[in-house]
From TrEMBL:
<comment type="pathway">
    <text>Amino-acid biosynthesis; L-arginine biosynthesis; L-arginine from L-ornithine and carbamoyl phosphate: step 3/3.</text>
</comment>
<dbReference type="GO" id="GO:0004056">
    <property type="term" value="F:argininosuccinate lyase activity"/>
</dbReference>
<dbReference type="Pfam" id="PF14698">
    <property type="entry name" value="ASL_C2"/>
</dbReference>
<dbReference type="InterPro" id="IPR008948">
    <property type="entry name" value="L-Aspartase-like"/>
</dbReference>
<keyword id="KW-0963">Cytoplasm</keyword>
<comment type="similarity">
    <text>Belongs to the lyase 1 family. Argininosuccinate lyase subfamily.</text>
</comment>
<protein>
    <recommendedName>
        <fullName>Argininosuccinate lyase</fullName>
        <ecNumber>4.3.2.1</ecNumber>
    </recommendedName>
</protein>
<keyword id="KW-0028">Amino-acid biosynthesis</keyword>
<dbReference type="InterPro" id="IPR009049">
    <property type="entry name" value="Argininosuccinate_lyase"/>
</dbReference>
<dbReference type="Pfam" id="PF00206">
    <property type="entry name" value="Lyase_1"/>
</dbReference>
<dbReference type="InterPro" id="IPR029419">
    <property type="entry name" value="Arg_succ_lyase_C"/>
</dbReference>
<feature type="domain" description="Argininosuccinate lyase C-terminal">
    <location>
        <begin position="365"/>
        <end position="434"/>
    </location>
</feature>
<dbReference type="InterPro" id="IPR024083">
    <property type="entry name" value="Fumarase/histidase_N"/>
</dbReference>
<feature type="domain" description="Fumarate lyase N-terminal">
    <location>
        <begin position="8"/>
        <end position="302"/>
    </location>
</feature>
<dbReference type="InterPro" id="IPR020557">
    <property type="entry name" value="Fumarate_lyase_CS"/>
</dbReference>
<keyword id="KW-0055">Arginine biosynthesis</keyword>
<dbReference type="GO" id="GO:0005829">
    <property type="term" value="C:cytosol"/>
</dbReference>
Amino acid sequence: MANQQWGGRFAEGPSAIMEQINASVDFDKRLWHQDIKGSLAHSEMLAKMGIISQQDKMTIHEGLARIKTEIENDQFQFSRALEDIHMNIEARLADNIGEAGKRLHTGRSRNDQVATDFRLWVRDNIDAMILSTEHLMLTLAQRAEEYADTAMPGFTHLQSAQPVTFGHHLLAYVEMLSRDKGRLIDARNRLNESPLGAAALAGTSFPIDRQMTAKLLEFDRPMANSLDAVSDRDFALEYLSALSIMAMHLSRMAEEIVIWCSSPFSFIKLSDAYTTGSSIMPQKRNPDAAELVRAKIGRVSGALIGLLTVMKGLPLAYAKDMQEDKEQVFAATDTMMLCLAACSGMIGDLQANKENMRRWAGSGFSTATDLADWLVQKLQMPFRTAHHVTGQIVSLAEQKNLTLDQVSIEDMQKIEPKITQDIFSVLSVEASLASRVSEGGTAPSNVITQAQKWIKILQD
Ligand code: ARG
């Protein structure tokens, strides 16, 4: 049987394979809510402009409300033969309300319809993504306040570098996530123009009011160029880029969780709720959730590259290739929502092993920079010279198997006679931490201020 929606010039229906490759309703049914919203706005405008009657509009609105209820209650029969969500809803409307339903598509094409629906969907999901991001940020900030003065080793090259606080480390991720949120907001602002009314590609001869539909759908304005409106998916790419960068941040955080809870480190313990066991090794507590968050960036950045590759080299305007946009965006969205929730759960529940972190914070001569800074500040030594002198003291400590604050004053004075007892005031982990009061530094006093600043922002 020829297609119900466009079968006028067709004698036969599509082959089963054609239907299989062409149909998108199995996945694009996720646009149903936005599709109905778009149709409500479009028909409202058609009636106001006298293109359809007020009576038809009312009938259409009633019919769409019925379809909404059917879908919500799982009573809607989605049909692959009707290809996509747009034609499923339109066909059902015509079945339900007859003639008026067949007038809905006046002055509209599926090309501007799908672009509108998809922008609305991405916009809605950016809003949800921002909420989940903020939830993770708040969780991190609350844990940072709790661990504001908990010492841990700070690393460069994954080698002990200088002591930092665990709170400071957690807040670093709050900063990253706040930029991720900023990128989502930017993407939202840029996508918020209405393609509706661009029709198939060239606009329409009907006296439509695009300002009105843009306003009804809470877009800032109609898109200026009808070809652009139906043929670009840069908004989806921008969203996927923002998600990919955020996924990279989460992946780094997840990797740190994996390292921190491995038994040689034992910096943290994850809760039972976010740990799995082993079927053979009874002692095991595996951080599977963290490992999976670490890995999921593959899907998200894969979606970005996938859609970039679809769009590359496509001539204007619409081409069916663009139907491949949705699954990438849906999958990346689902993945990121899950990863954000998993990170919030792990971070919210974890317990820091403070004693062990403190012990390792002082290992590896981690206060050597403090020693060098003391030489500069108290003896007016040029920093490069102080670096050299400190290197000699570290080497001596290493030979004698001592930490820096265990080296005797006599031994230090053999290397630099002007060193006084006062040097020991800067060699402890606590002194090192307390001294890092420069803006953005790790001093517990800074960390408390920063954590509380974020908590206040995020709770408002
Ligand atoms: N299902 C299609 C998509 O997602 C809708 C637009 C179809 N337009 C067309 N001219 N065939 O892109």
